[in-house]
Amino acid sequence: MILSLRSDNPEAEIGLFDKTGKQLACESWTAHRQLAETIHKKIEGLLNSQETEWSSIEAVVVFAGPGSFTGLRIGVSVANALGGGLNVPVVATSGEDWLRLGVKKFKDLLGFIAVEPNYGAPVFTTKPKK
Length: 130
Hints:
Layout: E1 2-6, E2 11-17, E3 23-30, H1 35-49, E4 59-63, H2 69-86, E5 90-93, H3 98-106
Parallel strand pairs: 1-4, 4-5
Antiparallel strand pairs: 1-2, 2-3
């Protein structure tokens, strides 16, 4: 089973797909500032709706951006954590066809390799005030 994650805007999306890319279940919700608090619960609910467990995830496809800094950071972090914990491939893709490309790419991968978000511009952080 393939888990998909998209968290680049206030409306987050997750999905479950079989190895051929056929959608089994999906959910979108207005996560906005509660994404970090809700994403794991939503994934667990989606798995439960298919009467399956976390261990049935064989790959994770995540939207890499560009998009919201915090949303992408959370989505990619969750994808990497699941990939590392389950030792499954994580694929990060972009563009309108991100999901199809990700499902196609994961077939060539074995095991976990961390992915990074694409913010669309250099990350700017402010200097601490002293």
